[in-house]
Design goal:
By secondary structure, the protein is of the alpha+beta class. The protein has 2 domains: about 15-75, Double Stranded RNA Binding Domain, CATH 3.30.160.20; about 80-150, Ribosomal Protein S5, domain 2. It has 3 helices and 8 strands, in the order E-E-E-H-E-E-E-E-H-E-H. It has helices spanning about 60-75, 115-125, 140-150, and strands spanning about 15-30, 35-45, 50-60, 75-80, 90-95, 95-105, 110, 130-135. The protein is globular and about 55 Å long. The model has no long low-confidence stretch (mean pLDDT about 90). This is Small ribosomal subunit protein uS5. InterPro entries: Ribosomal_Su5_D2-typ_SF, Ribosomal_uS5, Ribosomal_uS5_bac-type, Ribosomal_uS5_C, Ribosomal_uS5_N, Ribsml_uS5_D2-typ_fold_subgr. Keywords: Ribonucleoprotein, Ribosomal protein, RNA-binding, rRNA-binding.
Length: about 150
């Protein structure tokens, strides 16, 4: 029997998990009328302590997501994980948001709000407790969480 090649799935499977946190429709007033574009905030990780965040901007949603995925893969950072949780407590202020992340007890799970949960979930953290204080803006909370994870020391 002859070998048959599939052209549909010619892209290799990525080892990263990509999660779209937020999509915004942005409008710009110009002389010719409104210019509509989209921004997509994407979080990528390998569930083995690597995580990255990217913001893609384009005229269509699909292109914005693709750009966000590319940027998040380029901005990967290593998160120290000890027994499925983080090594110590961190409190970070980033713009209007304050994010507090604490190591969780074994088996407690992810006790975190939406933006923080999506970042630590793709990073591979299994037990964590967190609190978002101040801002309800998803993108600011994601960047604050990333800053908190960079401050962790083994």
């Amino acid at each position: 029997m002859a070998y048959q090649q599939s052209y549909r799935n010619d892209k290799p499977e990525s080892e990263f998990i990509d999660k779209v946190v937020e999509i915004k429709r942005v409008s710009n007033k110009t002389k010719g009328g409104n210019q509509i574009s989209f921004t997509a905030l994407v979080v990528s990780g390998d569930k083995k302590s690597k995580v990255g965040v990217g913001l893609g901007k384009a005229k269509s949603v699909a292109d914005a997501i693709q750009k966000g995925i590319k940027k998040s893969h380029k901005s990967m950072l290593e998160v120290p994980i000890v027994d499925g949780t983080i090594p110590h407590q961190v409190k970070v202020k980033f713009k209007g948001a304050i994010v507090l992340i604490r190591p969780g007890k074994q088996g407690s799970g992810l006790i975190a709000g939406g933006p923080v949960r999506s970042v630590v979930e793709v990073a591979g953290v299994k037990d964590i407790a967190s609190k978002i204080i101040g801002s309800k803006n998803k993108s600011i909370n994601v960047w604050a969480t990333l800053k908190a994870l960079t401050m962790l020391k083994k």
